[in-house]
């Protein structure tokens, strides 16, 4: 079946540090891949997405590249800020408009 | 644009009771999906409604049921509540067009079963 595996957290960084959160997936066909962010007490916000192999999604300084050969979609940011502290979820959708399958989430804590 | 709105924001129910959660989709969206997010976990898909019909369902028991109204708003009903039903319930809306993969989430309803 389809599944998403994320690196265990929490991830604790100092401001301006480099961030990587690993995500790998198992799916049939060619899923779309997503990163969602959840700030404390809030719902999920779409951070970025990629819909086919080698696509790079980017937003607010975050990037992730759809790597079909390694079934990965790692999230990166060159310089994190305190305001980036949140829980990050990797997700896939195997078909447009269908259910999202989420990883367990990775908590990021950035200190000044 | 109000985005996806859910009500209530918090709810406390007793084991065995029934609960109804409500969702209004983002303006222009016609598809509503519901997710359950247990503490410290990722959201789990419950079901999806389109054209007032349940189109897809996750691995949840029949105690979980739903409805979509002609104005695309939706309700999630849970009967015979169990302590394990305590979670954040998220509603997501999207627009049914070919190739569209983007869903917008509401703030969620925090359900506590005691």
Provide mean pLDDT of chain B, rounded.
94
Q: How many distinct beta strands of chain A?
A: 12
Relative helix content of chain B: under 10%
Q: Which regions of chain A are unreliable across 5 or more consecutive residues at pLDDT < 50?
A: none
Q: Provide mean pLDDT of chain A, rounded.
A: 93
Task: Give the structural class of chain B.
Answer: mainly beta
Terminal CA distance of chain B? 36 Å
The most extensive contact between chains is: A-B, 24 and 30 residues
Give the N-terminus to C-terminus distance of chain A in angstroms: 41 Å
Extended strand count of chain B = 11
Share of residues in strands of chain A: over 45%
Please state the structural category of chain A.
mainly beta
Order of helices and strands of chain A: EEEEEEEEEEEE
- Looking at the structure, what is the overall shape of chain B? globular
Largest sheet of chain B: 7 strands, mixed
Summary keywords:
heterodimer; A: 112 residues; mainly beta; 6-stranded mixed beta sheet; 4-stranded antiparallel beta sheet; 12 strands; 50% strand; B: 114 residues; 7-stranded mixed beta sheet; 0% helix
Please explain how this structure is put together:
The complex is a heterodimer of chains A (112) and B (114). By secondary structure, chain A is mostly beta strands. Chain A contains no helices and twelve strands. In chain A, the strands form three sheets. In chain A, strands 2, 5, 6, 10, 11 and 12 form a six-stranded mixed β-sheet that branches. Chain A has a four-stranded antiparallel β-sheet with strand order 3-9-8-7, with no helix packed on it. In chain A, strands 1-4 form a two-stranded antiparallel ribbon. The radius of gyration of chain A is 13 Å and the shape is globular. By secondary structure, chain B is mostly beta strands. In chain B, 0% of the residues lie in helices and 50% in strands. In chain B, strands 2, 4, 5, 6, 9, 10 and 11 form a seven-stranded mixed β-sheet that branches. Chain B has a four-stranded antiparallel β-sheet with strand order 1-3-8-7, with no helix packed on it. The radius of gyration of chain B is 13 Å and the shape is globular. Chain B starts with a strand and ends with a strand. Chain A binds chain B through residues 4, 32, 34, 36, 42-46, 49, 51, 89, 91, 93, 96-105, and chain B through 4, 6, 31, 33, 35, 40-45, 48, 50, 56, 58, 90, 92, 94, 96, 98-108.
